[in-house]
Amino acid sequence: MKKSIFEEYQKIKKKFKTIQKNFLNKSSIYNSKSRPSLQREYTKLFKIISNFKKIESIRKEIEEIKKLILDEELKSLALEELNKLINLKKKVENRLRNQLTPKDQNDRKDCFLEIKAGTGGSEAAIFAKDLFRMYCKYAESCSWKVEIISINEIESGSGYKEIIAKISGKEVYRKLKFESGGHRVQRIPETESRGRIHTSSCKVAILLKVDASEIKINQNDIRIDTFRSSGAGGQHVNTTNSAIRVTHIPTGISVECQDERSQHKNRAKAMSVLLARLKNLELKKVAQEKSYKKKFLFGSGERSDRIRTYNFQRGTIVDHRTNSVTYQINEVMNGKLEILIGKIVN
């Protein structure tokens, strides 16, 4: 057992014994209104300690089995048992890791999904549209609601330069927060006559949805510009200044919205995305100050992180955080994202 883990174990045991002792003392303040919460803490610590003990027990069994491998007659059975114990130890360690990982208070909140086409021209824009469809299918399977906030299509309409959508439902942020980063695609475009594989990329950002009361903004720091929409929507949209650009002057962060006919609605949508981006910036600063990144084993979920490579010719998806390969690319692109997300979240 690593020193840091052993020290954590000792702290947990000490806390557990203190709660246990006070439960037995009927005159203790612990037996007042705080008892229900302490009961939950007691149960939580009991499970953690049980897993620590289980790992130690398995470790001892593994050492004993290794001795039997030296016996030629028992070697085959010993190796089989050893593999079972190693796999069991990994499962218990993962369970313990989840128990010790601090819970994110934002996990139950909604979020904004932002996809931007990167290198690769029109093929990157087509991939952005494919990714959005994938997330929409996944959202549908989770009974989540998807609302498009802003969309910027390429001239042919076959792809997106950028799209922003609000996703709401049960544990949306918990499931999607580690999707932020670079997504790369390798495939033969329909316009490729020589059959060459092209590599394109997109950037995905998952932004926590926040209420106006959660983040303070000086209205003097906000600049609002209006302009004529260049998107779909008919003559009305294109001939009135209904499109909105909201800029936060101190950070330079700006958001455009032109999907609605109403200037008021576009402004409200743009402000909600701006708040989310500012909150995301705030969360990033807090993480840096603590020298801690969310779910550090798998990546921070920042745009600079490499998330996945989707290779359509091989039919594979490589997750660069877990170094795992999935051969179910068609299923994933049709919304069965739990195959990949489950490995990160759980």
Automatic annotation (TrEMBL):
Domain called Prokaryotic-type class I peptide chain release factors: residue spans: 228-244
Originating species: Riesia pediculicola (strain USDA)
Record's protein name: Peptide chain release factor 1
PANTHER family xref list: LD18447P
A single MF term (Gene Ontology): translation release factor activity, codon specific
GO cellular component, one term: cytoplasm
Family: Belongs to the prokaryotic/mitochondrial release factor family.
Record's function text: Peptide chain release factor 1 directs the termination of translation in response to the peptide chain termination codons UAG and UAA.
Segments forming a coiled coil: 55-99
Keywords in alphabetical order: Coiled coil, Methylation, Protein biosynthesis
Entry annotated with the keyword Protein biosynthesis: yes
SUPFAM superfamilies according to UniProt: Release factor (SSF75620)
